[in-house]
Amino acid sequence: MAESLAAVPFTVCFAGGGAFGISWHLAVTAALAEAGLDAASAPLVGTSAGSWAAPAAKLGLGVDDFVALGPVAVPDARPGALWRVAANLFGEQTRTPGVTIAAVELPRMRRRLFDGSLYPAADLAAASSAVPGLFAPHRVGGRLCIDGGVRSMASIDAAPAAEMLIVSLPVAGGLFGPVGRSLEVTSRRMVRRWRDRHGGVTVVLRPSREVSAAVGSNPRALFDTERAQALYPLCLDAARRRIELRLTQLDDPDETSPTT
């Protein structure tokens, strides 16, 4: 399958999407590996759910490691609650070079990009996924931060130059109707800007209709960890099919579509 693309320098951007988003990202990471694209070897950008997926990819963690954590209570506004989950998964001081995590700094609501080589993955995940009203803000390097998705669900502009940009977009297209369509439009605009700036090709991976239907129309489903993990096999199948189609298009100029 598109064997020549396995050697192409690439980067991956993991967007927000709650517990479901993490399952989707883990499926994307696994499907990419099957296609010869090892995310652990690439620069990675993560926001919210992506702040868990990016370090997980670097550390070789998969869905079984997340299942072993057990269900996560949502909401849980106790200080440090989200950090304790992340520390159990990543370790308290584990750093992940090659990872950039987006969070929003209080009180000015400025987006901050954190270098995974400088800060523990547990702190970055706890900060970047601290959804207001669901989890308490978390400090990183003295800065009090909340969910990076408050400013941008997918920090595509933070992705470095590469020959190929892969965007894992859990909430887009048909998922949640107008919300998903709005995020789709915004993300497509950011993808075009990245492509214009860096000249690389782009691959956007979003849930299939089957996956969207299984998630349902209630946004709360995004934060149901047990349901999200149960959807992993369906996500993996959808990610495999999308990656195979898109990489085949890129490998054959006569079949390449101008869309992502």
Give me the secondary-structure topology.
Blueprint: E1 10-14, H1 18-34, E2 44-47, H2 50-59, H3 63-67, H4 81-90, E3 99-105, E4 110-115, H5 121-128, E5 138-140, E6 143-146, E7 164-168, H6 178-198, E8 201-205, H7 209-215, H8 225-230, H9 232-251
Parallel strand pairs: 1-2, 1-7, 2-3, 7-8
Antiparallel strand pairs: 3-4, 3-6, 5-6
- Give the H and E element order: EHEHHHEEHEEEHEHHH
Radius of gyration: 17 Å
Beta-strand content bin = 15-25%
Percent of residues in helices: 40-55%
Shape: globular
Q: How many DSSP-defined strands?
A: 8
Say what oligomer this is.
Answer: single chain
Mean pLDDT: 91
Structural class of the secondary elements?
alpha/beta
- Total of DSSP H or I helical runs spanning 4+ residues: 9
Largest sheet: 8 strands, mixed
**CA-to-CA gap between the ends?**
19 Å
Please mark out the parts with pLDDT under 50 across 5 or more consecutive residues, or reply none.
Answer: 254-259
Q: How would you characterize this protein structure?
A:
The protein has 260 residues and is α/β, with parallel strands linked by helices. The chain is built from nine helices and eight strands. It has helices spanning 18-34, 50-59, 63-67, 81-90, 121-128, 178-198, 209-215, 225-230, 232-251; strands spanning 10-14, 44-47, 99-105, 110-115, 138-140, 143-146, 164-168, 201-205. Strands 1, 2, 3, 4, 5, 6, 7 and 8 form an eight-stranded mixed β-sheet that branches. It starts with 9 loop residues before the first strand and ends in a 9-residue tail after the last helix. The model is unreliable at 254-259 (pLDDT under 50).
